[in-house]
Design a protein that fits this description.
Blueprint (H helix, E strand, L loop, with lengths): L6 H28 L14 H22 L6 H14 L5 H22 L3 H21 L4 H23 L7 H22 L5 H19 L2 H4 L5 H26 L6 H31 L10 H20 L2 H30 L1
Helix pairs in contact: 1-2, 1-3, 1-13, 2-3, 2-4, 2-11, 3-4, 4-5, 5-6, 5-7, 6-7, 6-8, 6-11, 7-8, 8-10, 10-11, 11-12, 12-13
The structure holds protoporphyrin IX containing FE.
């Protein structure tokens, strides 16, 4: 819930979102560079692709959204440090992992304050998610390669999104045992993602199984199943949520079956099944709701939003097919489509706002 933000705070929020945008653009161009598609300054940042998107972009946005929810000035330390980490990465410094770790620790404090205010399942799950992130980021700062910290990043995203959806699903009657089952699954997810990062066998397969079960829970109990019947923004958001849960189910099953391979096509499939299929789909689904709350810029619904959503999912299907069949060109076309979908989504948000203002 947003409070009435004073002008200075609103300026800070928008400044942070500008850093997020720079981090996102560079991160996507860097991802294209890793696929061999050389666009702009992307190739220079090929190694920073993951941190720029996971930490600089979405880590900062999630921290900002939580800071707005807490509505205390000190809460903005977490997104501020996230933005400092993004700028440090863009500037090529060696200390950016430490800024990311400090941001994650500030997010733990922020989520703990929210738990103190409202100790319910979804606030606890967010706290757990940020603790997993802080452990992974600290490992990365101490020298772990990205492929080792990545399971904790998966854990952070899945826990945060599950918690957000659990909060919204309070509006739909969920059996008590089902909520309890979700809390157990989410706790296992936190445990396995950290144990997976530590290299404890067979944590990553167990993480995959837990992800698949969590996704099955969402497909069965999420509020999206009801809102799918309501036209306009509710149906669009529900479509994004359910498609995202579908990808989490498939990726979890793949991880449970093939295990974690820290490089190559299976690595690409395990990471982007979650980061593109689950996270970006949820971002598309929630952006028209969260963006106005955080930036105070109204974003009306437009049926145009279905275009980027379709390109995102069709592109990911091609990318996964390429990863699993060993077709580099299919993988590359799918990855390019994922980037194009992001561009189209931004354009359709701007377009919808422009048309409504006219
Ligand atoms: C939108 C288009 C995207 C493209 C074209 C892209 C491309 C790639 C490629 C080619 C790799 C290397 C995989 C390998 O080693 O085989 C990679 C790794 C990775 N990607 Fe993406 N990606 C995209 C989106 C994302 C998003 C949205 C996230 C996170 C939210 C993300 C996070 C990562 C991470 C963490 C790695 C591992 C990096 C490392 O080990 O250094 N990617 N990506």
């Amino acid at each position: 819930m947003d409070h009435v933000a004073p002008d200075r705070e609103l300026t800070l929020r928008r400044a942070l979102l500008s850093v997020v945008a720079a981090s996102a653009l560079t991160g996507v161009l860097a991802g294209l560079g890793r696929l061999g598609v050389l666009v702009g300054w992307g190739p220079t940042y090929a190694f920073e692709h993951g941190p720029l998107l996971v930490l600089g972009t979405f880590g900062t946005v999630i921290a900002l959204e939580r800071a707005v929810a807490l509505a205390r000035p000190w809460g903005f330390l977490a997104p501020l440090l996230g933005a400092v980490g993004a700028v440090a990465t863009l500037a090529g410094t060696s200390w950016s992992p430490w800024a990311a770790t400090a941001s994650a620790l500030a997010l733990v404090a922020l989520n703990a304050a929210i738990v103190r205010r409202q100790a319910v399942a979804f606030t606890w799950l967010m706290l757990l998610g940020s603790a997993v992130l802080a452990l992974g980021d600290a490992g990365w700062a101490l020298g772990w390669p990205v492929s080792r910290a990545a399971p904790t990043w998966i854990g952070f995203f899945v826990l945060t999104i599950v918690a957000e959806r659990l909060e919204l699903s309070r509006l739909a009657p969920t059996p008590r045992w089902a909520t309890l089952a979700l809390v157990v699954l989410a706790s296992l997810l936190a445990l396995f993602s950290f144990a997976g990062a530590l290299g404890v066998e067979p944590s990553m397969r167990a993480l995959g199984l837990t992800m698949a079960l969590t996704a099955a829970w969402q497909l069965r109990y999420d509020l999206a199943r009801r809102t799918l019947r309501r036209p306009g923004l509710p149906r669009f958001a529900a479509t994004g949520v359910l498609l995202g849960a579908g990808w989490l189910l498939l990726t979890g099953a793949l991880l449970a079956w093939r295990g974690w391979v820290p490089a190559g096509p299976l690595y690409d499939a395990a990471l982007h099944g979650v980061f593109v299929g689950y996270v970006l789909s949820m971002v598309f689904a929630h952006a028209p709701i969260i963006f106005p709350a955080v930036a105070r810029v109204s974003v009306p619904f437009s049926p145009l939003y279905y275009l980027p959503l379709s390109v995102l999912h069709l592109g990911l299907a091609a990318r996964m097919a390429g990863d699993l069949s060993g077709s580099a060109s299919l993988r590359q076309s799918g990855g390019v489509a994922n980037a194009v979908a992001l561009g189209l989504f931004v354009l359709s948000l701007v377009g919808a706002r422009y048309v409504t203002r006219r």
